[in-house]
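User: Structure please.
Assistant: Input sequence and predicted structure:
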Amino acid sequence: MSNDQEKDKSKLHKLKLKGSAKLIAEFFQYSINTILFQRGVYPAEDFTAVKKYGLTMLVSSDDQVKAYIKKIMSQLDKWMVHGKISKLVVVITSKDTGEHVERWQFDVQIFNKSSKKASAKKATDKENAVPGNDTPAPAPEKTDAEIQAEIQSIFRQITASVTFLPQLEGDCTFNVLVYADADSDVPMEWGDSDAKEIKNGEKVQLRSFSTTNHRVDTLVSYRVGD
């Protein structure tokens, strides 16, 4: 293969990787909103219906929530494009007790990543180092329709989760944790975080989806009643 062909192939791979990264970041944005709505963290009237993935999605219209998610997404987009993200977590916490009652974890695997470094959790409040996973084998080529069908299945599962998740009691709030490579550029307002795990909680593995360049696995942990 000539040098020009090699360059063209490399350019095509980078374009595909960037498109896949943006798709994953967008998926996270809608996941956060869907979890907040389905779990009743905010009143239903605080959400607006939009069409996405061939589904009717609900996104927050609360100014503070929108600003918080926008701040996270603006940084997440950059980290995803540069292959820095290994995990995103949405933690729901009781305002009354400060106890973490639900933890939605989205694990990101990047195919064909040249090297794996130590990872670190970056949240809007704290950070801890965590080890990375082995690089998985590349996924087969997929059509946009196949990817969308997998994403639809995840959102339908999140919606159906209300049938097995305990009802949240009292007022709750949420935090987003982002696990990024240790060498990632971190904004000053982002800080360190503990993992915010659910103590003695139950775990349910949900569906996954993949593109040619990424795979996302979904896991929800929740507190079991006393």
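The longest helix spans residues 3-38.
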